[in-house]
Amino acid sequence: MNTQQLSRTRNVFLIVVLLLQAAQLIWEHFNGGVVTHHLLMRADLPGVSNWWGLLILPALVWITGIHIQARLTANTQHDMVDSKAWRNIQLGFWLLLLFSLCQAIIFSLGFHTLAKFMLLGLLITALFMPLYRMECILGYVLGASLTSGPAMPFVGVLLFATVSALSHFAIKPMIARAITKMHSTN
Question: Which of 150, 147, 138, 159 is nearest to 106 (CA)?
């Protein structure tokens, strides 16, 4: 795969996501109105309308595509894409998409405690896996937007992405330096 094919894939995915989001909003409009999700599921707290999906999802797809393309072509020659890195990107996207779909379905079936434990498990996983990557963020938001719109999952994803980034770029390097320093003093 080359960068031109990667750009084409991003653009097709962008159009598909935009069309699906528009279809969901049209369906909601004609079936009781576009849903507004309130913080902590309390109507007396501020809410976020699913209309935000027309901005959030395409922007997230576009930014993710740019980041992925830059990451895949950074260490390659002749405008080709690193196939192992591409497989890892796809794996991260699909795993988080499936995870968030399962979490959304479990939540919508009324198993709220289990859905919260799944989120806690995701936070713990973020300490060890690079869930701060854009493909993971996009996969999570797309899956969760099925039942709760994209705005609330996007805010929630910032939590595990921040934990993951801090773990990988601050905590792990400090531990590695400490271990190296301990070995060099012996």
Answer: 147
Phi-psi region of 19 (alpha: psi -120 to 50; beta: other; left: phi over 0): alpha
Q: Within a 10 A sphere around the Cβ of 48, how many other Cβ atoms? A: 20
Cβ atoms 140, 104 nearer than 8 A: no
For residue range 112-170, list pLDDT tens digits in order: 999 999 999 999 999 999 999 999 999 999 999 988 889 889 988 998 999 999 999 99
Tell me the one-letter amino acid at 151.
A
Structure tokens at 122: 């995701």
End-to-end CA distance of the chain: 49
Residue linked to tokens 């992405």: 161
Q: Rounded CA gap, 44 and 56, in Å?
A: 24
pTM: 0.88
User: Could you tell me the two tokens for 42?
Assistant: 């309390």
With 0-12 / 13-18 / 19 or more C-beta atoms within 10 angstroms meaning exposed / middle / buried, residue 154 is buried
CA gyration radius for the chain? 19
**118's tokens:** 């799944």
Q: Torsions phi, psi of 171, nearest 5? A: -70, -50
Q: What single-letter amino acid sits at 58?
A: P
Which residue in the block uniquely carries the two structure tokens 């994803």?
157
Number of domains in the chain: 1
